[in-house]
C-alpha cells in the first residue's frame, strides 16, 4: 500500500513515460514527413542538434502534462489510502488531449500526407515508364532504321553512275577529312544496268567469264555489308535488352520500396491506435463520470481488471515500437544496433 504522495509520484511518472512514448512517435512521424516530402531539405539539415531539439521538445511537453499530478492536482477528499488513480476530471481531459488525442490527430494527418505523396510518386513513376517505353521504341527505330537523307545527299552530289541510281543507306558512317559519308549499296536494278553497260560487247553479248567475275565481285561487295548490318542489329538488340532489363530491375526495386513504406506506415499507425484507443476512451468515460457524478451507470462502475488490461495494452505499444521500426526501417535498425553495441566497445 502506497501513501498519497507516493501514489501521486507513481501516477505522475506513469503519465510522463506514456506521454513521452506517444510524443516520440509523433516526432518520428514529423521526421518521416519531412524526409518524404522534402528530401533535399531533410538531407541538408539532418544533424544531431536537430534531433536533440526534437527530443527536448517531446520531454518538456511530457513533463508539463505530468507535472500537475506531482503538484497536488489529483487530491480529492473521496480518495482512499493506496488508491493510485485519477480523481480530477479536468486533469484527465487535459492529459488525455495532450498525451493522446492531439498527437494522434497529428500522426494520422502526417501519415495520410505521406501516403498521398508515396501514391503520387508511384503514379508518376508509372507514367514515366510509359513515356520511356515510347522513347525507347522511337530510339530503337532511329538506331535500326537510319535516315535516308544521307543517300539523297550522296545522289545530289553526283555518284559514279549519276543521280538516277537507287541508293540504300546501311546506317554505318565514317568521317573523312571532316565530312561524314555513309556506306551505301545500290539496288539490284541499278547494279544490273551498270553491269550491262560496262561488260556488254559491241554486239550486245555478254561473256561468261566477265559475268562470273562480276557476280563474285558483287557478292564480295554486298556480303560484308549485310554481315555488318546484321551484327549492328544484333548489337542494338543486345543493348536494348540490357537497358530494358536494368530499367525493369530499378522499377521493381522502386515499387518494392514504395509498398514497403506504405506497409510500415499502416502497421505503425494501426498498432498505435489499437494499443492506446481503449485506455484513453475509458479515461474520457471516467472523467465524464467523475464530473457529472454518474456512479449509478454501469459504464462508470467498470471492472478494474478491464481498466488494467487497457492500461497494459498501452504499455505493450511502447515495447512493440522498437520492434516494428527495427524490422521495417533499416535506418532505425542501424541506430539501435549502434546504441546496443557501441557502449560495449
From TrEMBL:
Q: Quote one Gene Ontology molecular function term.
A: dopamine neurotransmitter receptor activity, coupled via Gi/Go
Q: What is its main location?
A: membrane
Its placement in the membrane is given as: Multi-pass membrane protein
Q: Where is the composition biased (Polar residues)?
A: 206-215
Region (Disordered) residue ranges read 206-257
Q: Which SUPFAM superfamilies match?
A: Family A G protein-coupled receptor-like
The superkingdom of the source organism is Eukaryota
Q: Which UniProt keywords apply?
A: Cell membrane, Disulfide bond, G-protein coupled receptor, Membrane, Receptor, Transducer, Transmembrane, Transmembrane helix
| Pfam families, alphabetized | 7tm_1
Transmembrane feature ranges: 51-71, 91-112, 265-285, 305-328
An example Gene Ontology CC term for this record: synapse
Every copy of the G-protein coupled receptors family 1 profile domain together lies at 1-325
Extent of Basic residues compositional bias: 224-236, 244-257
Q: Where in the cell is it found?
A: Cell membrane
Q: Which PANTHER family match?
A: ADRENERGIC RECEPTOR-RELATED G-PROTEIN COUPLED RECEPTOR, DOPAMINE D2-LIKE RECEPTOR
Which family does the UniProt entry place this protein in?
A: Belongs to the G-protein coupled receptor 1 family.
Name of this protein: G-protein coupled receptors family 1 profile domain-containing protein
Query: Which species is the source of this protein?
Result: Lymnaea stagnalis
Supply the source organism's classification.
Eukaryota, Metazoa, Spiralia, Lophotrochozoa, Mollusca
